[in-house]
Amino acid sequence: MIDPLAFVGALVMLLGLPGPTNTLFAASGATGGIRAGARLIVPVLLGYLVATLAVRLALGPLMAMYPLLGIGLKLALALLLLVMAIQLMRNATDRGGRSVTGRAMFFATLLNPKAPVVALVILPQGVPHEWLYWMAFLALVPGLGLGWVLLGRALGQVAGASHALVSRVSGLVLAVFASVIAFSALN
Fold first, then answer.
1. CA–CA separation, 141 and 106 (whole Å)
2. Contacts of 132 (CB under 8 A, 6+ apart)
3. How far is the first Cα of the chain from the last one, in angstroms, to the nearest whole number?
4. How far apart are CA 106 and CA 81, in angstroms?
5. Residue 82: what pLDDT?
6. For residue 147, what are the CA distances in angstroms to 16, 41, 158, 174?
7. CB 27 within 8 A of CB 152
8. 86-109 confidence digits (pLDDT tens)
9. How many CA atoms lie within 13 A of 73 on its CB side?
10. CA-CA distance, 160 to 156, in Å (whole number)?
């Protein structure tokens, strides 16, 4: 039997860690406010749902047979994050534009390295009431995402950070994540 508290704890620890999706949540909260950040929860939920199902049903077995597929997916994520980093930095002076879109959040989450860990390691397989674990996973995502939005909003207000500064720092963080992921794919 799987310990529910250990399951929830593992999900909170993994999904709460800084990463591409959470960086974008924080950037959205800092630059667009709580409402703008909260609008990004649905694309993130869809991204995680599609990614975990795809990994569980198809990609996991395929990546085991064809390791180059995993490398290709990591490089695709690194490229996507680099493009988003450049967009954030370019939009740093555009106060009227939305620097973080639902589409960007969906794809950042779809390719997020956390999704395979959730799908293959944390979510149990073949246990009674497996759907309850999936529901718990999907129920935790909005709360954690909103937490990052609130953190971004608070940091933006406390630090008095300008939209340009927040966008540039967020872009830099995404570029670092892209570099780390690309390096791990090539090693």
1. 13
2. none
3. 37
4. 12
5. 87
6. 9, 11, 16, 19
7. yes
8. 877 776 655 554 568 899 899 989
9. 22
10. 6
